[in-house]
Amino acid sequence: MPIVSLKSLHSPSSTYSYGAYRFISPNQSRLRIIHNVHSLLHVIIHHHQPKSKPQIMFVHPWMGIIANIPTTVQGGKHVGESGRKLREELTEKGFNPVRVHPLWNRHGHSGFAIVEFNKEWDGFNNAIMFERSFEADHCGKKDFYRSRRRRDKLYGWVAREDDYHSRGLIGDYLHRNGDLKTVSEKEAEDQRKDSKLLTTLANTLETKNMHLKEMENKCNEVSQSISTLMEQKDEMIKAYNEETKNMQQNAHDYLKKISLEHERTTQHLYDKKRKLEQREKELFHRKAQNGAETRKLKHEKMMNERATLEQKKADENMLRLAEEQKRETEKLHREVIELEKQLDAKQALELEIQRMKGALQVMQHMEGDGETEMKTKMNAIEEELKDKEEELDDLEELNQALIVKERKTNDELEGARKEIINSLKDVSTPAFHWCRENKKTAKQCLLWQEYLWDPSWHPFKIITDKEGNTKEILDEEDEKLTTLKTEFGDEVYTSVTRAFAQMNEHKTSGSYTAPALWNFNEGRMATLAELVEHLLKQWKQQKRKRCRRYF
């Protein structure tokens, strides 16, 4: 008979040679293990049974029998090795029994013990090795029943059908703790379990895949919708910017044309008035005045007064338009505030919708059979979500309208601000009055102006107050600032530090200066309303001066 290695399913290091078959490692697939075990059982059956009985019935869970356990008499009872000690000895040999149960009768230890192995195929492999080990030492089942001089040797074999139906302690124990099964029945039972498990896993996997595909389709639809909306938004913004730019350019050109015409008319009237005054003086100093020339002079003077009156009316109209512009600006400012409130409400509503969607998805994943309360909650959330989405659509329409109006207002105000700043550049106050006194101070002014524009110089430090709030303040220990204070005094030092603090506070263009409206009385940036009020005040003063010159 050929001999090959037979590896244990539970302990790869233990081997047993029998037949032309081999047990493989438990890391291989379970079906292959079952197939190999089944093949091995055919060899074992063929070796032990006649060909007319191919099916051998084993006790399941797999059990072995140990016989001829040495006993001694103590206190009138037979005592022998404990099941724990026998189990440890068998484990050291690599058989890995689950437990060893000695059999007792009314006289004490019977000298027999039942060895229980794992229910699976690795336990069957250990049981076969257990039996083969005893047979190799001529201590098998046949040897036990044939030998008359057993001495102290242990005998062992695997429990089969004849042991199961035997009378006595062994048969009773096997009846109580096991049943008879053939290898084919065990294999069929395992195949049924595996088939059921595979079917369940396949159904679960298919369900998960379908759900995954649905989620992917939804994500793709949402992504496509978002991309389309973003493209539409970009197109609308581009068209709006082009239209706004054209409208601003047209309004700017028209206003510039009116301003030039107004200046030419005013200059013409002023020149004409000056000529008339000169001519009046000449006629006054003439001793002989012609009556016709006097009437003509009075007529021209009257016409000039009428023209002056018309100019006055035009100036009053301009004042009225400026006041209307101021009121319109305040109105638009209120609308901007309302827009911000609408935007805050919209964002809060969007967050609430996202939260409800998340809760709905969680409940959908948690949904099970019979969970009526969960379904009721989901329906309520879906109804509330639908109402929230309708409310969001209404807010979206209102928000778009307010955004268009706000952008138009901001563009108009920004254009007006830039035009006013350009007009006031010639009358802006210098940063350092002391630098104009002589050449040396002028050079120092230019030097410190370069210092202020230098982005690498940042004489500020950050401090933390008692409440934990951080604040950026000027570093009075900076080397350049201390040198400035020492050489030029506190007045110059105060002017420079104030200017640098203002630049750092507003930071309109990094560390570089940019034109801005400034309220010198309060030391802050001026608003557009304050600028309009200032221009109206200057215009009224200029008008009074012109009226005095005319008369």
UniProtKB/TrEMBL annotation:
Q: Does this entry carry the keyword Iron?
A: no
Q: What is this protein called?
A: Factor of DNA methylation 4-like isoform X1
InterPro entries referenced in this protein's UniProt entry, alphabetically: FDM1-5/IDN2, FDM1-5/IDN2_XH, XS_domain, XS_domain_sf
Residue ranges of domain Factor of DNA methylation 1-5/IDN2 in the record: 438-545
The domain of life is Eukaryota
Q: Which part of the chain is the XS domain?
A: 57-165
Does the keyword Coiled coil feature in the UniProt annotation?
yes
Q: Please name the taxonomic classification of the source.
A: Eukaryota, Viridiplantae, Streptophyta, Embryophyta, Tracheophyta
Q: Which residues form a coiled coil?
A: 198-257, 304-412
UniProt-listed GO biological process terms:
gene silencing by siRNA-directed DNA methylation
Q: Which UniProt keywords apply?
A: Coiled coil
The cross-references to Gene3D superfamilies, in alphabetical order and at most eight, read:
XS domain
